[in-house]
Amino acid sequence: MGTKRQRAERRTDALSKERIVEAAIGILDTEGESALTFRALTTRLATGAGAIYWHVANKNELLTAATDDVMARVMTEVVGDTEPREAIRAVALGVFDAIDAHPWVGTQLTRDPSQSAMLQFFESIGGRLQALGVPEQAQFDSATALTNYVLGVAGQNAANARQAQETDRSAFLATAAARWARLDPEEYPFLRRMTTQLREHDDREQFLAGIDLILAGIATVR
Amino acid sequence: MGTKRQRAERRTDALSKERIVEAAIGILDTEGESALTFRALTTRLATGAGAIYWHVANKNELLTAATDDVMARVMTEVVGDTEPREAIRAVALGVFDAIDAHPWVGTQLTRDPSQSAMLQFFESIGGRLQALGVPEQAQFDSATALTNYVLGVAGQNAANARQAQETDRSAFLATAAARWARLDPEEYPFLRRMTTQLREHDDREQFLAGIDLILAGIATVR
DNA sequence: ACCTGAACACCGTTCAAGT
DNA sequence: ACCTGAACACCGTTCAAGT
Question: Which InterPro entries does the entry mention (chains A, B) (predicted)?
């Protein structure tokens, strides 16, 4: 009985999968994707590599768990809306904001879209399409289109974050816009015409505009 | 003069960026992304690591060059169509087929979408939107939506290829469908309803269906 | 100018050994 | 059951030295 008590009162800083995932998220958020190594983790957790492997199979499982951790919060937070169209927009925006705050989530989702987080997203979208009155036949293609679009944005965001790193966003956009402006006008008339829009656009608004475009297309199928 | 001649007649197997890129593509296509290492390259090219670094700055530049090599062919092959809507579908399908044949291209495009290949794609789409009569204001958002969708599919395809690896496609789909069928029907009614469609769908057709959905949405903006 | 190949600094992962 | 930490098998990249 005394022994059992002792087991229940384990030191609060004992290692666990949750604590490891938490530490991983901390490193990813503050120092970026490339900083997450088992060495960095062992230092932060004051332990050995083998201790981590006792709780986690490998680095990929750790990344998956960290991503699901962030995404689970998003999916549960966005449940209020009843109007299906608004609900779809809200869920999509929730994912966008999460990826914006944690770019490494974008990398991970594009690397492994069969994550339970994406299944939840797909389910959440699909259920609303049903409520929207989209015919059965078209529901699969519609949900897939929305999901692929979100994954594309996720990847872009992660790539931008990787490239921006030091410089801030407006400087980053200015550089990109300058590159567009320097392109051959014969070969790239469209990009040149869009230079100003590139520099001045808002990622979040543009993301929503894309969602609305796809929703408008879906509304077309009757 | 004799010297100059000799220089012109260099041994045909001399190293060059093109030959290195070609070898890299060979490894990527036959053995997959993880097989592309500088050790594998030096073996295949019968040279030293330093020799490769003389022609190529680093692994990322090599991957970028290999991707642009594949994509450049796609973009030039698809120029026949005059009807803008068909041209957009053809360009998108060309990218899809290229990624289907070379899944590593999908990984690279999602990792670095500012590649010249994607700029060409964006330009190609944008020019056609103009021809389609899409208002200036909406062209940027429309081209971005299509591009993000294609990038999302690219990532998915690459991830699937990575996961499939050994087993063939139908076995892969069967496994995924079986996983969907095992989900809690209370929590995942939509996924369960879509299980059959997942198992029987054709990736290429579904990709086109998504493009058509977005195009239908774009046609809505007047 | 172009190439060789050993060496460097780092990875993720394993495993015998401890408690 | 859980943890330690040295060791292993790999990486990408550098660089003194060769031709």
Answer: Homeodomain-like_sf, HTH-type_TetR-like_transc_reg, HTH_TetR, Repressor_TetR_C, Tet_transcr_reg_TetR-rel_C_sf
pLDDT at A11: 37
Q: CA(A19)–C1'(C15) in Å?
A: 24
Tokens of B72: 């450049």
pLDDT exceeds 70 at position A2: no
| B65: Cβ contacts below 8 Å, ≥ 6 apart | B17, B21, B56
pLDDT for the residue A165: 67
Cα–Cα distance list, A46 to A9, A17, A38, A186 (Å):
20, 15, 11, 59
Please report, as a single letter, which amino acid is at residue B3.
Answer: T
Residues A50 and A96 in one domain: no
Domains in chain B, number: 2
pLDDT of residue B167: 72
Contact A143 B190 (CB under 8 A): yes
CA dihedral of A34, A39, A41, A43, whole degrees rounded to 10? -130
Amino acid B166: pLDDT: 62
Q: Between chains, do B212 and A217 touch, taking CB under 8 Å as contact?
A: yes
| Chain B residue whose CA is closest to A196 | B140
Question: DSSP labels for A93-115?
Answer: HHHHHHHHH-HHHHHHHHH-TTS
Q: What is the CATH number of the domain that holds A101?
A: 1.10.357.10
A107 and A32 assigned to the same domain: no
Please tell me the pTM assigned to this model.
0.92
Domain holding A11, by residue range, is 1-56
Do residue A102 and residue A170 come from a single domain? yes
In whole angstroms, what is the distance from residue A207 CA to residue A215 CA? 13
| B2-39 tens-digit pLDDT | 333 333 333 346 899 999 999 999 999 999 999 999 99
> Where is the domain boundary, B41, B56, B71?
B56
Task: Out of A122, A148, A206, name the one closest to residue B152 (CB).
Answer: A148
Closest Cβ opposite residue A155 in set B110, B142, B189: B110
Report residue B158 as tokens: 């690459």
